[in-house]
Design goal:
CATH architecture: 2-Layer Sandwich
Function: ATP-dependent carboxylate-amine ligase which exhibits weak glutamate--cysteine ligase activity.
Organism: Streptomyces phaeofaciens
Structural class: alpha+beta
Number of strands: 11
EC number: 6.3.2.2
Protein name: Putative glutamate--cysteine ligase 2
Shape: globular
Mean pLDDT: 96
Order of helices and strands: EHEEHEHHEHHEEHHEEHHEEHHHHH
Family: Belongs to the glutamate--cysteine ligase type 2 family. YbdK subfamily.
Low-confidence stretches: none
Number of domains: 1
Length: 364
């Protein structure tokens, strides 16, 4: 089976007030003392000092991936507590935050180049890496998974609040993220050479610094032999992150099989994909989505059902089908992160309580 790795970004918050805290250096210093010198660090700094990032190891079995996610979230919580803060799997801060950009040449360049857009990017995502056999297979996968990516965003949506206000969006992180000039859905690439030429041309404009700053919704990783899918909010619950990983691997395997069988990708325009993306960010699982195949309104429940059908053979072969069905049913019944946050807000009227609740959910 294809291996899967997950990267998660977590928000550092004051355990009492719920306000974001610029304590990443202190958290990372404590993590470094616990990590073995010969291993690649699990925790990394992010663009802002109010955030930390971690990455799992590549895993073949989803049970093992789930165990690792829960363990590392627990480690992050312990390091944060020692530094005087807490970690929350929140894709945006419900409370107002004053951005603090991390030190480093790359981050200074971004702050100078993109101005306020850089300072506003205190947003936390979940990135899923799935192994591919070659760049040709990887680009063929990118071409074929495009219309399904908004469904992953709807499932993971976990950012209804921004700077102390209700946004009306299930994933407002997504609207903020698209302020980067290289972010969003892509056209069909065809051969891998076309993909690499497009990336090189983008870097050559001087608008972005390097290949790593090409923020496509799904891309070839610059570091690993993987396809990297980047549309999901950081998920409130680890189980939801595992579901996203299962579905991403299913999409990659399904697309690779279609490519090998000579099936052409669906040629939806970027204009339609952007509308589907907006609708998913707006309504999450609470309303209608744009169906990936027909590009027409359909209920979230029916679109999720059709996603499971689309990847069903791949999930059955990996042994993940029943887990995916159960997790999707639970999300549709109980709500995703954005729905959980809104329920706490409606019940308590307190964004501080929203953050406190999410701190608890992060380690559940």
């Amino acid at each position: 089976m294809r291996t899967v790795g997950v990267e998660e970004e977590l928000l550092l918050v004051d355990p009492e007030s719920g306000e974001p805290q610029a304590l990443s250096a202190a958290v990372l210093a404590r993590a470094a003392r616990c990590e073995q010198a010969e291993q690649e660090p699990v925790f990394q700094k992010e663009l802002h000092n109010q955030m930390v990032e971690f990455a799992t190891h590549p895993q073949s079995r989803m049970g093992e991936l789930a165990e690792e996610l829960v363990r590392i979230r627990g480690e992050a919580a312990r390091h944060a507590k020692e530094a005087g803060c807490a970690v929350a799997a929140l894709a945006t801060s419900p409370l107002a935050v004053r951005p603090s950009v991390s030190i480093g040449r790359r981050y200074r360049w971004m702050a100078d180049q993109f101005g306020i857009a850089t300072r506003e990017q205190i947003v936390c995502g979940c990135h899923v890496h799935v192994a591919v056999d070659s760049d040709e297979e990887g680009v063929a996968v990118l071409d074929r998974i495009r219309p399904w990516l908004p469904v992953l965003m709807a499932l993971s949506a976990n950012s209804p609040f921004w700077q102390g206000r209700e946004t009306g969006y299930s994933s407002y992180r997504r609207r903020v993220w698209l302020r980067w000039p290289s972010a969003g859905p892509t056209e069909l690439f065809g051969p891998a050479d076309n993909y690499h030429r497009r990336v090189a041309d983008m870097v050559a404009t001087g608008t972005i610094l390097d290949e790593a700053m090409v923020y496509f919704d799904a891309r070839l990783s610059a570091r690993y032999p993987t396809v990297e899918v980047r549309v999901a909010d950081v998920c409130l619950h680890a189980d939801t992150a595992v579901l996203v990983a299962i579905l991403v691997r299913g999409l990659v395997e399904t697309a690779a099989r279609a490519w090998a069988a000579g099936q052409e990708p669906v040629d939806h325009s970027i204009s339609l994909l952007r509308l589907a993306d907006w609708q998913a960010a707006r309504s999450g699982l609470t309303g209608h989505l744009v169906h990936p195949l027909t590009m027409r309104h359909a209920s979230a429940e029916s679109v999720v059902r059709d996603l499971l059908e689309h990847v069903g053979d791949a999930l059955a072969d990996s042994g993940d089908l029943e887990r995916a069905r159960a997790s999707c049913a639970a999300l549709l019944r109980d709500g995703n992160g954005s729905q959980v946050q809104r329920e706490v807000w409606e019940r308590t009227g307190s964004l501080r309580e929203v953050v406190s609740s999410c701190v608890r959910h992060t380690q559940a």
